[in-house]
Design brief:
The chain has helices at about 5-20, 60-75, 95-100, 125, 145-160, 165-175, 215, 225-235, 245-250, 315-325; strands at about 25-30, 35-45, 55, 195, 200-205, 220, 255, 260-265, 270-275, 275-285, 290-295, 300-305, 350, 355-360, 365-370, 380-385, 390, 400-405, 410, 415. With about 425 residues, it is α+β, with helices and mostly antiparallel strands. It has 2 domains: about 5-325, DD-peptidase/beta-lactamase superfamily (Beta-lactamase, 3-Layer(aba) Sandwich), CATH 3.40.710.10; about 345-415. The strands form 4 sheets. The protein has an 8-stranded antiparallel β-sheet with strand order 2-1-12-11-10-9-8-7. The chain has an 8-stranded antiparallel beta barrel with strand order 13-14-15-16-17-18-19-20. A hairpin with an 8-residue loop joins strand 17 and strand 18. Helix 1 packs antiparallel against helix 10. The mean pLDDT is about 95. This is Serine hydrolase domain-containing protein.
Length: about 425
């Protein structure tokens, strides 16, 4: 739970967003320690407010992506596989699974036919996709595509031999205990509405099964269930996904340079920077509904929001996270000694040419190589491979191999030595025999 003064601050922000945005109803909460630590409902919300379903919209994409990554981890597909290998016969057949996950495949933003969010959908064959639904070259730029995730849903269905919704229910929702997340409203559920721009009146929005486009935005959920998904994004993955795979999903791939701030997309997850803080999650909108789930992994906290209005709300989730951080900042675990993953004499100063770098041991059996403090240069963390070499996790050397020898480090053709241009080490191009002068 949060402190009473924190709860008051969170409630005040939530109430203002609901009032100023004229949402018929809005529920919101913050997540710590595996679930909701605070929540509130504003407007016409049935009690208990945490058990009323709202439509998630594009948050469904993140749940779809989890199943795709499970297929990858099982060895059934690779992120570099062309779509045609798994869903043959589409005009996007030469685009990869990873590009579809990151909205880099150049697929059209929407499916053909009627506005898929407001009319019932059919099968993939019913879409009658053609060359005109490939609107950009592969990996040229970020281009958000609902169609792309419809195709990923089809991929999931074909690999699992059952409809997309049955696969995500069995592999994600049920194991996480998200029993009130369903493809259509069930039990207590809000009516989707549009609010007139010039008067305080509302209009019901339609609700239907989107067919092959289900994977892009079909799911409904309660605040409790969305809070559980936030806990998942914070690392409470259970048996659903390996923590390393979740971390992989949060790495930005496509950058949305049209956003007013820094905004990117990983593998089925949005990654945004808000006032210096990196948030991971997804927003959602469907006719009649807005939703959001984002987490600040550095603060071990998340925030969730659901509302039954088509548009008009100011962002709420980042503000709730900022309020929580200001009032009750995360207190991390205490530092404790731990044995380094390499002998102590390997650590310390190494030189790339004349530039000094430091190799440090970090928690979790990692190494960090970077310039001395105050000096510019490239830095990366490394984790050990089974063969004894090390592979870069981030920075310039992500994916590159580091090998440690007695007198040098070999990293992506660069050689680091104990002394600047040590003539006894295998420095590429050799060292002038006359030495320094």
């Amino acid at each position: 739970m949060v402190e009473p003064t924190t709860a008051r601050t969170l409630l005040a922000r939530t109430a203002q967003v609901q009032r100023d945005g004229r949402a018929p109803s809005l529920v919101a909460g913050v997540v710590r320690d595996g679930g909701l630590a605070w929540s509130a409902g504003r407007g016409d919300v049935a009690d208990p407010h945490i058990d009323v379903q709202y439509r998630l919209g594009s948050i469904s994409k993140s749940i779809t992506a989890v199943v795709v990554m499970r297929l990858r981890d099982e060895g059934r597909l690779g992120l570099d596989d062309p779509l045609d290998r798994h869903v043959p016969g589409t005009p996007l057949g030469n685009r990869t699974v990873g590009q579809l996950l990151s909205h880099l495949a150049g697929a059209s933003s929407e499916s053909p036919g009627g506005w898929w969010e407001r009319v019932p959908g059919g099968s993939l064959a019913d879409l009658q996709l053609g060359p005109e639904h490939v609107v950009l070259g592969a990996a040229r730029r970020f281009h958000y595509s609902n169609l792309g995730f419809g195709l990923l849903g089809e991929l999931v269905a074909r690999h699992r031999g059952r409809p997309w919704v049955e696969a995500v229910t069995a592999e994600v929702l049920a194991p996480l205990g998200m029993t009130r997340t369903t493809p259509r409203p069930s039990g207590a559920a809000a009516q989707g509405t549009a609010v007139h721009p010039w008067a305080d009146v509302v209009l019901p929005e339609p609700e239907h099964d989107a067919g092959v486009m289900d994977a892009a935005g079909q799911l409904w959920a309660t605040l409790t269930d969305l809070g559980r998904f936030a806990a998942f994004l914070l690392g409470d993955t259970g048996d659903v996904l390996a923590p390393g795979t979740l971390a992989e999903m949060t790495v930005p791939a496509g950058v949305d340079f049209s956003a007013p701030g820094w905004s990117a997309y990983g593998l089925g997850l949005q990654v945004v920077r808000v006032e210096g803080t990196t948030l991971v999650g997804h927003g959602g909108s469907m006719p009649g509904f807005l939703a959001g789930v984002f987490v600040d992994r550095s603060e071990a906290a998340g925030a969730v929001m659901l509302a039954n209005t088509t548009s008009g709300l100011d962002p709420l989730v980042p503000g709730l996270l900022a309020d929580l951080k200001a009032a009750e900042p995360y207190v991390g675990p205490a530092w404790t000694p731990s044995p380094p993953p390499v002998p102590l004499d390997v650590l310390g100063v190494w030189f790339w040419g004349p530039a000094p770098h430091v190799l440090r041991a970090q928690a979790g059996g990692l190494l960090h190589l970077g310039p001395l403090p105050g000096r510019g240069g490239r830095a990366s963390r490394f984790t050990r491979r089974a063969d004894g070499s090390w592979v870069g996790l981030d920075g310039y050397y992500a994916g590159e191999t580091l090998r440690i020898a007695d007198d040098h480090l070999d990293l992506a053709t660069f050689v680091f030595t104990r002394q600047p241009y040590d003539p006894a080490a295998p420095v590429p191009g050799g060292v002038d025999p006359a030495g320094w002068r």
